[in-house]
Write a structure and sequence with these properties.
It is found in: Cytoplasm. By secondary structure, the protein is an alpha/beta fold. It has one domain: HUPs (Rossmann fold, 3-Layer(aba) Sandwich). It is built from eight helices and six strands; from the N terminus they run H-H-E-H-E-H-H-E-H-H-E-E-E-H. Bound molecules: iron/sulfur cluster.
């Protein structure tokens, strides 16, 4: 086993409580919630069935799902199951069904492509080079995302400007580089505001957020972060990269 792969996510610091640690209702949050809802409503009217929420099942996306479901907006909710997610992440699917009565459509990679890749490059290929890591993301994320977005004119993401320097200029509504609109209704929310919303509306969330993982991706590629580290420092932590898998790459 390589040195990086011996840093398991389970080696995170003892669990805290994300709500207790981060939630802070700010004077502007009511207005931000209203604005986010307006963006979702406008997008739903403009795009109709062409609109989908592409949820990572991270806390930001859970907030957006809550906004959609509580206001009964007719927006489809989808996610990618890469085959490498934590069980805690997958456990959110039945919780969403139970809580909101909404079925999340799950897109998985092509099984044969995964088998061939793992057979050729190994199950830990992501640690060997950035190229192999991106190839893994291509098979497990990008290809299924393409199927998720096929026929859609717009998608909703939980991107926030605060998440990283690379996301500092995320727009509420922008061209995704492939002819679709990419809508990020809570782009201006802070981490404290996300958790204040979760607390107020009792939004289901991944318990791994209680283990200092603000950004949760595939299990082999996610670790807890230390105080002062960037939100996405725990993603592909062994790389000196922009911490993006291609889903939100700038064109
Ligand atoms: S995040 Fe890691 S395991 Fe998931 S698709 Fe990318 S390289 Fe593969």
């Amino acid at each position: 086993m390589s040195e990086v792969s011996s840093l398991p996510w389970a080696a995170a610091p003892a669990a805290g409580n994300a709500i207790g640690l981060y939630a802070k209702w700010t004077p502007t949050l009511d207005a931000k919630i209203a604005a986010a809802l307006q963006r979702l409503t406008d997008a739903s009217i403009e795009h109709g069935d062409g609109l989908v929420q592409s949820s990572s099942l991270g806390v930001e996306d859970m907030v957006i799902t809550d906004l959609i479901a509580r206001t009964q907006l007719p927006i489809a909710i989808s996610t990618l199951d890469t085959g490498k997610l934590h069980p805690e992440t997958l456990a959110l699917l039945p919780r969403i069904q139970e809580r909101y009565g909404r079925t999340v459509e799950v897109f998985k990679p092509v099984a044969d492509a995964v088998i061939q890749f793992v057979r050729k490059e190994g199950d830990d290929a992501m640690y060997k080079s950035i190229e192999l890591r991106k190839a893994c993301c291509g098979i497990r994320k990008m290809e299924p995302l393409g199927r998720m977005l096929k026929g859609r004119s717009a998608w909703i993401t939980g991107l926030r400007r605060e998440q990283s320097g690379a996301r500092g200029d995320v727009a509420f509504d922008e061209d995704d580089g492939n002819g679709r609109r990419k809508i990020s209704p809570i782009a201006d929310w802070t981490w404290a505001e996300v958790w204040a919303y979760v607390e107020k509306y009792d939004v289901p969330y991944n318990p791994l957020h209680d283990q200092f993982m603000p950004s949760i991706g595939c299990a082999p590629c996610t670790r807890a972060i230390a105080v002062g580290e960037d939100f996405r420092a725990g993603r592909w932590w062994w790389e000196d990269s922009t911490k993006e898998c291609g889903l939100h790459a700038k064109s």
